[in-house]
Every structure is written in C-alpha cells, then in structure tokens.
Amino acid sequence: MLFSGVAGGGGRVSIADVAVPARWTLDNGTTFHPVDPGMLAAAQTLSVDLESVNYLGNPICLCKNAPSIKLIDLKRQPKVLVGGDGASSDNNNGQAFPCIPNGGDVFGCQPCSAPDRSLLYTGNFFQAAGPWLRNALISNLNISSTSNPAFDATDNETAATQAVADAHGVPFLGIRGISDGAGDPLHLPGFPFEFFFYKQIAADNAARVTAAFLQNWAGV
To answer: Which domains does the chain have, with CATH numbers?
Structure first.
C-alpha cells in the first residue's frame, strides 16, 4: 500500500517538501511502527524535481476548466526527506468527518475529476453531519497551530491506515507533501491558514514523488 497526501511539517522539513517517514505513531510517540523496509529503501534512491511555484488549484471543482492561477514562488528548491518519524492523531473523537456535497477539492464528497462525478452525490453527509457536530466540532476548534518538531509529518490518517495494512500483512509506505509548517515566506498564522494556501503545491509534490516511486519500484 502506497499512501500519498499532505501533512503538517515539523522537524527537518519546510512547506512544499515531501516527507517519507521510516516509522509512524498513533500515540504521540509512545510507540512507533516501521514502514516496509524494502519500500523505504526504494524511496531513498529517488531523485525527483519538485515544484517550487504554488498555484490555486481547483477549490470549487471547476474540473478541466480550472484556471492556472499562480499564488507564490517559494524561490527555493523543495526536497524529499526519506526517514524520520511521522505522527497521526484523531481530532474528531472517533467521529467520521462529513463531506460537503459539491464542496470542492478538500471537503467535497467526490474528487473533482471523478469520471462518475454527480452534483447530486451526497456521500456520508447526512449520516455523519449530526454526530460530528455533537461530538467533534469543539475538539476541531482547539487544533494546535504549531508543528511538533519531533515529527517530520503530522496528519490525521496515515498511521491509522498503516495499522490496517499491518494487520493484514500488507507492505506500507506513506508519502506526505508538507502543506503547513516552517518555510512560509508570507508568515501566515499556521494551520489552517497555511494549509489552505499551500495545499496545492504540497499535493502536487507528493504526487510527483508517488509517481516516481511507482515507476521505479520493482515490487515485493
């Protein structure tokens, strides 16, 4: 299983870098679970040209007609960092986050470019909205705005996904583009402001590393 996406960055990474941690924790570092050593070794051989210009992306699902709007040039070359630690935590108190029908590339119920995308598709919204508002909204308002320097990547889902893969004996590697943390030339006030501004370059760079890995990996 190759799990790609974005994360907050701490430790040795900056915004737009890509972290490929050697191990992940679900309990803030009390215990760690290593990724597949063969996949990690393959990632260490990669040489990937990462994007340094951040574009707006597709926030309202304009799909193929989305304009390419430049937001900022970081004026530095982002890097791939293989090794180190990643951490995941659940700030929803075990409640599923409700997707927002036609909510764009972050909150929407379907990917903007899904071939079967429908304006009528509501996903889990009606099932999950009530429980999330009752049991998770307050905890989401208390998200820390500073990155933990103990971890190169911090998100909600990677370590949980790894736990499922490990339980089924499936080799696992997580690749995370850094969307918020150090290296912001605009000095925005941390998460979630940096996330919404830099999520596109983080996702693009994670995708570049993921594609390079798949092209070069010989498999298990």
So the answer is: 2-91+148-216 (3.40.50.1580), 95-142 (no CATH)
Answer whether the bond into residue 67 is a cis peptide, omega within 30°: no
- Backbone φ and ψ for 71, nearest 5 degrees, come out as -100, -50
183 SS3 class: coil
Phi, psi of 147 (to 5 degrees): -80, 150
Whether the Cβ atoms of residue 80 and residue 103 lie closer than 8 Å to each other: no
H-run or E-run covering 5: strand 2-9
The CA distances from residue 126 to 100, 122, 130, 213, in Å, are 10, 8, 7, 38
Residues 6+ apart with CB under 8 A from 130: none
* Ordered alpha helix ranges (H), 71-124: 104-107
61: pLDDT confidence band, cut at 50, 70 and 90? confident
Residue 40 tokens, joined: 């990690």
pLDDT digits (tens, 9 = 90+) for 32-48: 999 999 999 999 999 99
- Threshold 0.70, pTM exceeds: yes
Rg (CA), the chain: 17
Per the structure block, which two tokens stand in for 127?
């099932």
